[in-house]
Design goal:
Blueprint: E1 5-11, H1 18-31, E2 35-40, H2 55-65, E3 72-74, H3 86-96, E4 102-108, H4 109-113, H5 121-127, E5 129-133, H6 140-143, E6 155-157, H7 166-174, H8 185-192
Parallel strand pairs: 1-2, 1-4, 2-3, 4-5, 5-6
Helix pairs in contact: 3-5
């Protein structure tokens, strides 16, 4: 079967949680994706704090969190460079896979509000269709900072995604609180080891 409709879902995944997993599954279903690349970032730009877990641990956690779906492939493309850029990664995927006819960039509303800070962000709208899962209401103040009109082909989904963040999970762990409701068991084992 040809791989023609492809999604890309990047993030620190520190740790990956059920919100991430549900977004990935919904994207595959709603967009009829043949394949969804999940790519943990190396060192996210614009994040002042150091990530809690090293690259190798975050990659392993992502592999365990997303291993139940054969349409998801966890890749380490962005982990190989000191600084990685989504535009470069998507361009590389498109050039290496000539059969791709549609590329979708999957993100939460929190990432979309900050997209104007990304390298070549305007070009992202040209090489991929942006898909935004609204975990929170979009902050119109942030959206008003765009120096161009948001393209009409941006897809907004308002599905009920678990309202949890990786930061909240790390805080819960630091206080000795259980996180089993938010994180797959295999990932919890790594976090507690």
């Amino acid at each position: 079967m040809a791989i023609v409709k492809v999604g890309y879902f990047g993030g620190s995944f520190d740790p990956p949680h059920y919100g991430h997993i549900q977004m990935a599954s919904l994207a595959i279903k709603k967009l009829s994706l043949d394949l969804l690349y999940v790519c943990p970032t190396g060192a996210p730009l614009g994040v002042k704090k150091k990530l809690a877990n090293p690259r190798s641990t975050r990659l392993k956690m992502a592999q365990l969190a997303f291993n139940n779906n054969p349409k998801i492939k966890v890749i380490e493309t962005e982990m190989l460079d000191k600084h990685s850029y989504t535009f470069n990664t998507l361009s590389k995927l498109l050039s290496e896979n000539k059969g791709i006819t549609e590329m979708f960039l999957i993100m939460g509303s929190d990432a979309f509000e900050k997209i104007i800070n990304w390298k070549n962000y305007k070009n992202l709208f040209e090489i991929a269709q942006i898909v935004v899962f609204q975990r929170n209401k979009l902050n119109n103040k942030n959206l008003n900072n765009f120096d161009f009109d948001i393209p009409k082909n941006v897809i907004f989904f308002s599905d009920n995604i678990p309202q949890v963040s990786s930061t909240e999970i790390r805080t819960m762990l630091a206080h000795g609180e259980p996180v089993d409701l938010y994180v797959p068991t295999a990932v919890v084992k790594i976090l507690l080891s």
